[in-house]
Amino acid sequence: MEDDRRFTTVLRDPRGEERHSETKDQPMLLSPTLAINQEIDRRRRAGLPVVALGFGEANIPVHPMLTAALGEHAGRAGYGPVQGLPELLDEAAEYWVRRKVPTRAEHVVVGPGSKALLFAVFEALGGPVLLPGPSWVSYAAQNRILGQQVVTVPAPTGQGGLPDPEALRDAATRLHADGAPAAAVLMTIPDNPTGTVASPDQVRAVCSVAEDFDLTIISDEIYLDLVHDPKRDVLTPAQIMPDRTIITTGLSKSLALGGWRLGVSRIPDHGPLRAVRERVVGVASEIWSAAAQPVQRVAALAFSEPPELVDRIAQSRRLHSRLARTVAEIFAAAGANVAQPEGGFYVYPDFEPIRGQLAAQGAMTSRDLAHLLLEEEGIATLPGVAFGDDLARLALRVAVPMLYGTDDDQRMEALEAESPETLPWITQSLDVLHAGLSRLAGSSTMPNTTPVT
Length: 453
Fold this sequence. Notes:
alpha/beta, Aspartate Aminotransferase, domain 1, Aspartate Aminotransferase, domain 2, 2 domains, 8-stranded mixed beta sheet, 3-stranded antiparallel beta sheet, disordered C terminus
């Protein structure tokens, strides 16, 4: 009998057949990442202590060059073109050309965040969509809103963000045999939630499967400029198959402009993807009309990559790397399996090695574990199940940036510090994390973590 555990089907297929207990007819719940942020805020306003490791916000100060540019253009209140302002389309195209991805201005579509653009892309492509497992919470949720089928394919160990190529081929073969061939496969480079970066060989292998099954590749590269080692060889699918790959990115992670809501997508004009781009622009015209013009003009500046902003991104990359590695060491010392963080600002510990100790405290699932940490220790994380992982797997998604500080003075000091993990407000949170995990693991002798060098 064939092993169905290699990939998981959720939502509904195009015929409306139910494949999962959670359906489009059920209430749409608040996104887990936003929900935990609201819970953290509620606890702080109530005077409750909390170590905020749940929300993936970059949490670094906005560069003065960007705030000055926003003020300069604040009076530009017109809608502007649906696809985006010409100067932003030009700068975004050149940004990708510098990354060895052939792009013209007419390939670019601008939206109020990459999240909105992803939704429009999913709508234009239809389903089924093949996702890596685990993966960012909104991919499956957006397809659920659209009533489209999603198939989650496990990611290779230590290489999150793309499906295992062999399992992907099996999933695509099965869908084709069922008469509902997959429309697209998605990759995230670097990955949220695991903080890892797929190897060039794995990217090539997934691209090969995409070509064999005529799949569009969606490449979410919102963290691409935050690969921890700037000298690392990182290959993206658009560098291999530019005519088959749609890219989404933005400024929320690299420059901490999440609240300004600006995303860009690259949708090539080869074959059927030309119609996809036209459909995305049509959807944009009916939903958001045009991204805010002042923010688009700031984005044009940002995508031109002036030296001051390149330096700021390098600073933030270093800060994210040091704190992610430090937090990973603390979780590893508590007995969790943790892949070395390689990009972005996430850690994904798996507590399987101490399942027995956790079961004795009532933590049988990742949801139980996240609840236990929050209620007993004041440590806010997200359960792996929120990212499509198996409920029984004792995995957590941990985001480190909210450790950097609660005001711009603290955040700037963290950004500029040689050893940010030794700053008093960061050390205080790390000590609470260390002590809480020590109690969770049932050990009072868990060694103190050594700051990374």
